[in-house]
Design brief:
Layout: H1 3-23, H2 29-36, H3 40-46, H4 50-73, H5 78-101, H6 115-137, H7 147-160, H8 166-180
């Protein structure tokens, strides 16, 4: 892909993330093109259908969260790393859940999703599990907590959170971290 084509694709994906997060299923590809500053033809040159655009946007978002999770997990203090990761993921949760809700019907294990989305979700989950296991090994998280527990709590926070609720979200994440035995 040419450099300008790759740059346009990235602009479209970034714009799509914002537009879909704001408008959900009502978002149009025209709005994405306008936000990205490209023509609708550019959007469709990169993504044949709106569903392809949604899937690519979800994959990009999951990959971005995975990179953040892996960077935070490299911190020398495993407990603080998990706390920072939980805060980051709770803040990103509403966008993530909106994108995942726009995908075709699927179960909690990702059954029914396209292969790229499933792979991105699995990689993200492995990074989250790795951060949890590091914190548990350091004695900075309850040993009985599972990755499923963390995912459930993050989904609950995401569905209950408005992006403008910064202080309330911080308190809620603090309460969750207290329950998980994670110092913060």
């Amino acid at each position: 892909m040419r450099r300008d084509g790759a740059a346009n694709r990235e602009k479209v994906l970034l714009a799509a993330e914002h537009v879909f997060a704001e408008k959900g299923a009502a978002a149009s590809t025209d709005e994405v093109a306008q936000r990205a500053g490209v023509s609708i033809a550019t959007v469709f040159r990169n993504f044949a259908t709106k569903q392809d655009l949604i899937e690519a946007t979800a994959v990009r978002h999951l990959e971005k969260l995975t990179v953040e999770a892996l960077q935070l997990a490299d911190s020398p203090d495993a407990g603080k790393a998990l706390a920072s990761l939980m805060k980051t993921l709770a803040a990103a949760g509403p966008v993530k859940m909106t994108l995942l809700d726009l995908l075709p019907p699927h179960d909690d294990d990702g059954e029914g999703l396209s292969r790229p989305v499933t792979e991105a979700a699995d990689t993200f989950r492995a990074a989250l599990d790795g951060a949890l296991h590091r914190a548990q090994a350091a004695g900075a998280a309850r040993p009985d907590v599972t990755g499923d527990d963390i995912s459930l709590l993050l989904r609950a926070l995401a569905y209950a959170t408005d992006l403008s609720e910064g202080e309330a979200l911080d308190r809620a994440v603090g309460i969750v971290l207290d329950g998980l035995g994670v110092p913060h």
